Amino acid sequence: MGDQWAGQGFGWQNMFVAPEEDPRDESSLYGEREVLAGYLRAQRQTLELKCGGLTPEQLALRSVPPSELSLLGLVRHMAAVEHSWFQRVMQGDEGPRPFRPNGRHSEEFSFAVPADDDVEAVFGEWRRQCEAADAFIGRTDLDVRGQGDVELREVIVHMIEEYARHNGHADLLRECIDGRRGQ
Predict the structure, then answer these.
(1) Is residue 70 assigned to a domain?
(2) Which pLDDT score, from 0 to 100, does residue 55 have?
(3) Which domain of life does the UniProt lineage start with (predicted)?
(4) pTM for the full predicted model
């Protein structure tokens, strides 16, 4: 089967990981909370995979002009979205959102800086927001309602959708950067 794809531009050599090395696993999830949390975790892992092994300059590259979209900008955006839904909407936190110093949505994308310190800070904030969301999900009934009468389970499903949509963007960005293709 190895020669079947020769010359066709497809194969594990340009994918993110071989199937046996893929950290995402939804096969042993049981119960609503575990399924929802597991699929959210897999979508987060997908974003992290798509950013893996790139330089700060590559992460901040806007690969599809005139769009301001970059992989680093997507991670910044997802940190702000995690904070917005789980901290603001579900828990009433009125503090500032990450990566929005002036409160504008576009700031998450337009201020991505290609420096090691910035990359570490962005991924650190994103991971903190994910951990805070996971802690909240773990201790809160899925029927709990936040602002706008939205249930926690609805927020989790929305976050899975949000990551899935942006992971599609990340696929295209990554392929433009180094030819690696989605998974």
Answers:
(1) yes
(2) 95
(3) Bacteria
(4) 0.85
